[in-house]
Amino acid sequence: MKSNEHFMQMLLGLSEWETGREQKIGIQELSHLLCCTPRNVKLILRKWESEGLLLWKAGVGRGNHSRLTILCDITEFLASYFQKRLMDGKVGEAVELLHHKNLPAGAKRLLQETWDSQFGFVAIENDKRSQEILRIPRERAFSTIDPAFVAVAAESHFIQQICHTLVIFDLETQDFKPQLAYAWERNLDMTAWTFYLRKGVRFHHGRVLTGEDVTYTVQRLIQLDSPYRWQVDDIDWIEQRNDGAITFHLRKPNGFFLHLVSCIGMSILPHDVLFSESAIVGTGPFRMVEFTDDRLVLAAFDDYYRERAILDRVEIWRVPGSCSSKQRYQLSLAEDEATEDDSKSLEVQEVGCHYLNFNFRKPGIQHDFAFRQAIKLLIDPVQMIRDLKKETFTPAGSFLPERSQRMHFSSHTIEEAAHWLQKSAYQGEAVLLSFNDAKKVREEAEWLQERCQRVGIRLELQGITKGQFLSYDIAQHADMAMMGEVLQRDIELGLMEIYKNKCSLVHRFLDDDRLAIVEERMSKILQLQDSKERMRALEKMEDILRDEAWLLFLYHTKRFDHYHPALQGIAVDSFGWIDFSKLWVKSFVTSL
What is the mean pLDDT of residues 366-381? Predict the structure, then answer.
């Protein structure tokens, strides 16, 4: 261990960090702090004394305590150590230091300034050229970014920067555009779909894309029993006619097949590279440089088959706790160039909604329609939005904001809810509600808990992380759950995913009878060629959820993101994120 790191290890065990203040501490205690023998402690102390870091006075005789005095400029030492943690990518350690209870006020201010300067756009000068970097802080821990299992909007966006699919759904035209395939065709009965692969497309490890990579990607979804497996279940066999064309032969007609090959699960991976989530290889504009619990680092891929990204790197840092109050979005404001009033705003209406879902996989009162109606009236979104002053929320009666806008919503009384509860078989038993343990969702859960108490429902709350939602067997424990769903750019596919993807809470909470109803309807929808017909059928499926109270729609959210006026190339990609590959700035916020 380097001397500075060892010294910091000692500091973390001391009760006082002030320069010049003498404090009592024994060799045995230091031995424990430094994880070494008393003999080595004495050697280390002599070394630190010679470096001017501290003064050590050994206690001689019974009752005479040894004393230690820090001599170095503690603020300067901590700043240097903090900066080194950041440069080495040890973001978690840096954040812990920033929040440490013993951190002197002056050092905390300096470290906070250093921390704030890390985010947004920075330019790092080296011998050859300036590196243009976008750093994004985020509080939530990373979940999986394996294309076969990803289930969170942000992580899905990151994958789209690393990997590409055969075709891509275009938001503006509401149609498909070429991506790794430059053209495609199908037979008349929609049982054979042929895609013509671009020539010279290189993976990040240097090899050129072939049809074998497409076949491998499909087989991987099947072998891993991916939540996206349903999207390739109709494939009977894959014909690789040559390196430039590949044909999917289907078991039955599928007019939805273009949607399926454009999904995140069909992000093409190389067949000759053992998959590693910390070193994903794709064909996208950015290659993965690092992926740890603390940060994800992406670098521009110079051999990208389209126009190279202008940014050199994108770094997403995990920030547990609010250590950067200025960060309202991915970008920071430059204090010397722009104020908050000068910043530009980006309004993003998230496509999707927050909802409360009943668990039909577990026995309980939630199977009682009258009880579900009582909960529906208690969690009245109109009243919740009003009580909690959620200005950016609007009531939801659908997964789609546009459809909800055409609906009428009225507030309901506690008495109406109590009336339905009396009709139910509820006998005062505890009902467990699991929810995403973010501050705003906990506030909503506690609001519902209080209203339930007013009519005699004993609602117990269980906050779990998004990662736990995916790994924790929630269907074995929760009676109800509050969750949010953000749909991808292809709304039809996003709606299908809600019902078909095994990671979806809607799918996980349906019992066999209800799931059979959904599967029958989804099978018919997949065979429809006309998009309008499919949307009408999906709306009818949604109506069943609402009318039978299998699921209670709560609200839609709108986000107002602020960014520096020098930022150019703003293009909101799927899931409401900015497409990194299109970003550039006129001048950089920070130079390091």
Answer: 95
d(CA 287, CA 295): 14
- Quick one: which of 305, 269, 246, 263 has its CA closest to 163? 269
Q: Which residues contact 409 (CB under 8 A, 6 or more apart)?
A: 381, 382, 395, 397
Q: ∠ at Cα 11 (7, 13), nearest 5°?
A: 125
CA distances from residue 564 to 138, 342, 344, 465, 486 in whole angstroms, order as listed:
18, 8, 6, 31, 26
Q: Is the pLDDT of residue 558 over 50?
A: yes
pLDDT at 554: 94
Q: Is residue 313 helix, strand or coil? A: strand
Measuring CA to CA, which residue among 436, 509, 439 is closest to residue 479? Answer: 509
User: Residue 343: is its pLDDT beyond 60?
Assistant: no
User: What dihedral do alpha carbons 228, 230, 235, 236 form, nearest 10°?
Assistant: 130
> To 5 degrees, how large is the angle CA 70–CA 76–CA 81?
95
Q: Tens digits of per-residue pLDDT, 398-420? A: 999 999 999 999 888 999 999 99
Tell me the per-residue pLDDT of 304-317, one tens digit each, with 9 for 90 and over: 999 999 889 999 98
Residue with tokens 């070429």: 178
pLDDT in tens, 59-84: 766 667 788 888 888 888 888 888 88
Check if the beta carbon of residue 19 is closer than 8 Å to that of residue 70. yes
Rounded Cα gap, residues 136 and 388, in angstroms? 29
Q: ∠258-260-266 over CA atoms, to 5°?
A: 115
Round the average pLDDT of the chain to a whole number and report it: 85
Nearest to 496 by CA among 226, 313, 252, 260: 260
β partners of residue 415:
none
Measure the CA–CA gap between 195 and 591, rounded to whole angstroms: 46
User: Is residue 162 within 8 Å of 284, Cβ to Cβ?
Assistant: yes
Is the pLDDT confidence value at 347 over 80? Answer: no
| Alpha-carbon dihedral angle through residues 580, 584, 590, 592, given to the nearest 10 degrees | 70
Q: Could you say which DSSP state residue 198 is in?
A: P
- Dist. CA 420–CA 424, nearest whole Å: 7
Give the mean pLDDT of 41-47. Answer: 86
Residue with tokens 């087989």: 219
- DSSP labels, 5-71: HHHHHHHHH-S---TT-EEE--HHHHHHHHTS-HHHHHHHHHHHHHTTSEEEE---STT---EEEE-
What 8-state DSSP symbol labels residue 329? Answer: S
Structure tokens at 493: 């596919």
Residue-wise burial string across 430-459, b where 16 or more C-beta atoms lie within 10 A, e elsewhere: ebbbbbbbeeebeebbebbbebbeebebeb
* pLDDT surpassing 80 at residue 589: no
